[in-house]
Structures are given as C-alpha cells and as structure tokens.
Amino acid sequence: MRDNNHKSDKKDVYKYLKNSRNKKGEILFDQWFDSNVPAIQPGFINESLKSRIKKIIDDRTKSPNKPYFIISKKINENSNFQRGGIAASLIILIGLGLFFYMGKTNVYKNDVLKSAEMDVKQTSFGERSIITLADGTKVFLNSGSSLKFPKTFDGATREVELAGEAFFEVKHIIKQPFIVHSGNLKTTVLGTSFNINAYPRENMLQVAVATGKVKVEIKDQRDRNSQSAFLIPNQKAELTGVKSELIIEHIDISEVIGWKNGFLIFESSSISEVADMLEKWFGVSVQLASQDISDISFIGRFKNPDLEDVLNAIKFTTGIKYKIDKTKVLLYK
C-alpha cells in the first residue's frame, strides 16, 4: 500500500515539474525543498525537466516577482551558491534514476496540536524561561509569552504554538519537520535556530533566522491559499497591520536576539515603545504623563540592567523624568 502511495506522489510531482497544474505535486515539491532530504525511489532520466526544476528552485529561493514577497535588500553572494547546490542535487537525483518521497502531512491543518497530549509553559512580564522539549529542542521563552507543545512528538511533524516571543534551537530530525504556529504565521524547519516575535496585543508578527533555513507561511482565516517565503541567516520576515504580504529584509541577528543573552536594546525607539519594552522586561506598569513625549527617540544598550539604570539613562539623554511607586512608573517632562 505504501509503495502505491510513493508511486502516486512521484507521479503528482512529475506532473507539477512538467508545468502541469497539480497542487498536490507542488506541495510535495515544497516539502522536499524545505527539507532537502530525498529518499531513493525508482525514477528515470529526463533531461527536459532540468530547466523547469532550475526555475522552480530559483523562484522558491528568490521569489522576486511574487506580489506577497518583497525583498528590500539584496541577498548575499553565498545564497547564489546555495541555490546552485540545491538545484544540482535535485538534477543529479533525477539523472541517476532516483527520486524523492516526503511522508504525507497536512500542510494546512494543525492536527498534531489537536490530538496530542499538550503542555503549556507561560512567563509573566519580567520573567524569562528556558524549556527543553521532548525531542531535545531548546526554547528560550521571553517575558509575557506562552508556548503550547506536545509532551511527546509521535507524529510525522513536531508542532508547537507560540504567543509572545521565543528563540528556538531546533534539534535536527530529518524525517520530522519542526513547525511553529504563531498567529497568522506558520514557520517550518528541520534543524535551525531562529527568533519569533508574535505578541497577541501587538499588530506585528516577525521571524528572524540565526542559523539554517526557515520557511514562513501566511495563512488566511480559512487555512487555505498560504503564501510563503524562505529565509536564510540574518534575514527577517515581518507581517504588520492588515497587509497580507511578508516584508523580507536583512538584519543583525545579534540585535534581535539580544534579550536571550540578557541585553535590553533600544534602537532609536520612541518613548512609547520604550515604555512597552520596560513593562515586558521588568514586569511594571509604565505610564506617560502626556502624549507629547511619546515620540521622543531613545537609543541605549544595557546588560542585565536594573530598572533605575535604564530610567536614569533616559533622563540623562532625553530630559524625561520619572517617578516610581512600587510596580508603577510615571514618565514626564
């Protein structure tokens, strides 16, 4: 029965590669591309597919013409080498009479989270935590965040759900992709480290990659017609507001994940943004005495700071004063 499934999947992929409309074949190809781990199956030599495969892989990697995938800066030179290597590996597989099969997984439905015995870890504002999952994956959970995950990973995928911010160091398991659901984004990897920022009350979703390759998908409310992009190290995908498009840009990953190593970093942050970050970091309530100070900009970098260290730096550089009453902070000028 399984061999019949293999043959059926292989046939669907070939139809897709031949420029036919075959959604199942496209999904299987995307799964192969994301893992880049083929399994040997009988195949045949077909030179005419080479140019088609090259184009598909190049589109999957760059996707410059897709309306939902916007590149603000050029990918570095190494990415050209990576694309060529991936394309060559697939062409060699076909040329040698080999092909690939990816296990049947439902790309759009989160069945694993629904059926497995789940656990939930939460952090309050002012608290950070490190969680080691059953597969050995390490998760650094930022303040005010929640991670929902199975107690064991028994299915074809490893799926978790994040609200808030976390840095993932994913254990590499070839046959069991790791998937993070965060708001309207789905992030899929094998063995990779990356940061996700998805606080429910904020109108922004963000994925930033430290190592490896990450596939990010936007899903509509009906869980269909997903849009996707691939990220490499020091790239960030951001989904903001009501736009249904990913904005891709290069970043300094050390700045994005500084919180994991005890760094509180403000990069030209407005005082209203500073107030929000202080609330998360220290677990206090921060109020602005008037809105006319909300747009004042502040730059600072602190290592394991005390609240007053940060407030004094703000006072010195911006002239904004503060009052502390237990767990309440008032900023005024």
Number of distinct beta strands: 19
Compute the number of helices. Answer: 8
User: Which structural class fits the helix and strand makeup?
Assistant: alpha+beta
Order of helices and strands: HHHEHHEEEEEEEEEEEEEHEHEEHEE
Q: Per the principal axes of the C-alpha atoms, what is the gross shape?
A: elongated
Helix content: 25-40%
User: Radius of gyration, rounded?
Assistant: 23 Å
Percentage of residues in DSSP E strands: 25-35%
> Termini distance?
74 Å
| Main β sheet profile | 14 strands, mixed
Mean pLDDT: 76
Q: Which regions are unreliable across 5 or more consecutive residues at pLDDT < 50?
A: 35-45, 61-110
How would you portray this structure in words?
- The chain has helices at residues 2-17, 23-35, 49-62, 78-95, 111-115, 253-256, 271-282, 307-318; strands at residues 69-71, 118-122, 129-132, 138-141, 146-150, 158-169, 178-182, 185-189, 193-198, 204-211, 214-218, 227-231, 235-240, 246-250, 263-270, 285-288, 297-303, 321-325, 328-332.
- The protein is α+β, with helices and mostly antiparallel strands and 333 residues long.
- Helix 1 crosses helix 2 (23-35) and helix 3 (49-62) packs antiparallel against helix 4.
- The chain starts with a helix and ends with a strand.
Task: Kindly summarize this structure in a few lines.
The chain is α+β, with helices and mostly antiparallel strands and 333 residues long. The protein contains eight helices and 19 strands.
Features:
alpha+beta, 14-stranded mixed β-sheet, 8 helices
